[in-house]
Amino acid sequence: MPEICAIVSCVGDARALAAAGVQRVYLDVIDLEPTDEVLGEAWAQGLVPLLDEVCRESDHARLDPWVVRDRPVAVGNVSELSLARQCGAQPELRSCVPVHNLAMLEAMASLGARFAWLSPELSLAEVRELAQATPIPLGIRVFGRPRLMTCEHCVLQVAHDCDGRHETCPYRGEPHWLVNIDGRRLPVSTDRLGRSRVFLDEPVDLIPAAAELAAMGLARLLVDARMVSPREAADACGRLADALAGGRVGAVGTMGLARLGVE
């Protein structure tokens, strides 16, 4: 039976989902300063840090403390994978590292990856093909809004004057979005470093396929609680548990590319 996992943005949310039965919780550390107190609380709760997909020289001071010998860490690029290997950590590949085929999985395993989260762009048929031959365990996100784009510059700069002090920006904490050419309002999250991430306007929901994914041999299934309400996240976790127990559950949102895959 796959582990039920979740991604959260703060330690408080991690407690709530753990109490709801989530077995493995990932903590997005983008907006967290790695103080001794924050690190201690994360380790005490057994949280797995989720590192950025962007890592410049200036980012190492806030990211490197999360990479610890013998502890799991979810890395978002090859440089973080290299650091984790050097430190003796247990690196997992985030889904933004594009392991779309067996050759890539084998290459990442040879570089030290212990686990890989598959891209939501893969179809169920493509997931099955990889699961039958993979050299490392696999998982996939079954609920949440996928990230469509990461911008290293704050998208709010086109609407407001910017003084460069992103952490104290009065606009950053307000809801904002980009309007696509087809009228879809794509939510945007801007971090304290002034990097914006654009998300799909509705969740991708593979929970109805959870039993099928489990039968393929996937080790972990994930609910991304970052860009949905606490109620949506808790409901998704409950539906996932029911689906894995053999119940029939409906989809909330789109099945995404699950039937078509990468073209």
What can you see in these coordinates?
This protein is an alpha/beta fold and 263 residues long. 27% of the residues lie in helices and 22% in strands. It contains eight helices and 13 strands. The strands form two sheets. Strands 1, 2, 3, 4, 5, 6, 7, 12 and 13 form a nine-stranded mixed beta sheet that branches. Helix 6 links the parallel strand 6 and strand 7. The protein is globular. The mean pLDDT is 88.
Strand segment tally:
13
Total of helices: 8
Q: Which band does the percent of strand residues land in?
A: 15-25%
| Coarse morphology | globular
**How much helical structure, as a percent, in the residues?**
25-40%
The class by helix and strand makeup works out as: alpha/beta
What is the CA–CA distance across the termini? Answer: 31 Å
Order of helices and strands: EHEHEHEHEHEHEEEEEEHEH
* Averaged pLDDT: 88
Radius of gyration: 18 Å
Low-confidence stretches: none
Strand count, sense and barrel status of the largest sheet are: 9 strands, mixed
Summed up, what is this model?
By secondary structure, the protein is of the alpha/beta class.
Question: Which key phrases capture this entry?
Answer:
263 residues, alpha/beta, 9-stranded mixed sheet, 4-stranded antiparallel sheet, 13 strands, 27% helix, 22% strand, globular
Topology:
Elements: E1 3-8, H1 11-19, E2 24-28, H2 36-44, E3 48-50, H3 60-63, E4 72-75, H4 78-87, E5 90-93, H5 102-110, E6 115-118, H6 124-131, E7 138-144, E8 147-151, E9 176-179, E10 185-190, E11 196-199, E12 204-205, H7 210-216, E13 220-224, H8 230-244
Parallel strand pairs: 1-2, 1-13, 2-3, 4-5, 5-6, 6-7, 7-13
Antiparallel strand pairs: 7-12, 8-11, 9-10, 10-11
